[in-house]
Amino acid sequence: MNGISRRHFIRTATLGAAASLARAEAALPKLPPLLTPDLDFYDVSRGTPKPHTLTGEALLQARLTPETWRCEITADAFIEDPHTKVPATLKKPLTLADGNALDLPTLMELGKKHEVHFLKAMQCLNIDTPLGQGLWTGVPLREVLKLCGRMNNVRRIYFWGYHNDDPKQVFKSSVSYTQCFETAPGDLPVFLAYRVNGAPLSLERGGPVRMIVPWSHGYKSIKWLRHIFVTNDARNNDTYSSGNNDPDSFLKTAAYVDKSLDGQKIPAGQPVFITGQVISGLSGVKHVEYWLRRVEGQPQPLPDDDPALLNASWKPCELETQPDWASVLPKGVNPRQVLAFDAQKGTPLSWPSRYGMCSYHAMVKDLKPDKYEVRARSVDMNGYAQPEPRPLQKTGKNGIQVRRFEVVA
Hints:
Blueprint: H1 6-11, H2 18-25, H3 56-61, E1 70-75, E2 89-90, E3 102-103, H4 104-114, E4 116-122, E5 132-140, H5 141-145, E6 151-152, E7 156-161, E8 172-176, H6 177-181, E9 191-196, E10 199-200, E11 210-212, E12 225-231, E13 254-257, E14 265-267, E15 272-279, E16 287-294, H7 307-310, E17 315-316, E18 318-319, H8 325-328, E19 357-364, E20 370-379, E21 401-408
Parallel strand pairs: 1-12, 14-21
Antiparallel strand pairs: 1-3, 2-6, 4-5, 5-9, 7-8, 7-12, 9-10, 9-11, 13-15, 15-19, 16-17, 16-20, 18-19, 20-21
């Protein structure tokens, strides 16, 4: 296996090697950009009809234009003896009835002082492919809540967006008071996002405003935000707590193998490129590795704890090299101002960046004509190989993927 940086391979090949590299390059899938264009994210939107398909009066009634967007912020009157004896309160709720609900100009004005940028990969808890990665820009939730003045007896903050007018369709998520207000300096706050990759959020991405919870799966980053409420109920009652899901799950470190290799017939003598993307979860990424083996007939699936897989000869993959961040990030965004980037160097504190993703690859040469299958897995900074250390995939799907191909004479 020969290691070749894909970005270097594609962009900086020397003229002397151009002919041979061009032959190999033709076998490579297109390199996905580090910043996924707004409309190219894999979409898992909720609602019937989906909110981003609304037009005309329906769009205005849903408050999903920059001019009509409003977000109410209220306190929950919930009490339940013996655990919740007094309700949460806000000195100044922001409501439609009082004519002071949060609007986009007010949020943007807060952004002049408190704006943050964060490079985050979006991933669904129960889907086995990354949804995309963007540079999200907005205002921390804690700064927005300060508009409501003093609050008392708040242990959790809930938020939900527009999906349709059926109350049964409300999809809500939450964070604890501590997660919202007590972020360490330079660390990752929950924030209300109004831009991705330097441009206003499209309706499909949850615009005009959505919530971004940097460390979590997509179900926390509610689209089409329209209501926030504080409560003294300490329990996590997120909509996603049903269905055996873990509503407090963090993003999981996981390598995903590109589907483009599946079913390919590759002429003997040509290199085989194993490519994919790896997400850096809470425990970070130490490296990515692959296992290639010959197979006969229709091979049986291997459980993630199969001895053949656990004792396999895993070989290293190469992560794509970091780009010139000043040229990749949107105009006007200084890399030194991006959260989880070094404030002096303007580069991520880790690579892939924390809760972000990058591509990886391996090149395999001189395979004999036969049928093969390949798997890839991540190893985190604690030394755990995917999908360890947890057996419950409902805390974040990161099972080991397999792709099958054939080398033909």
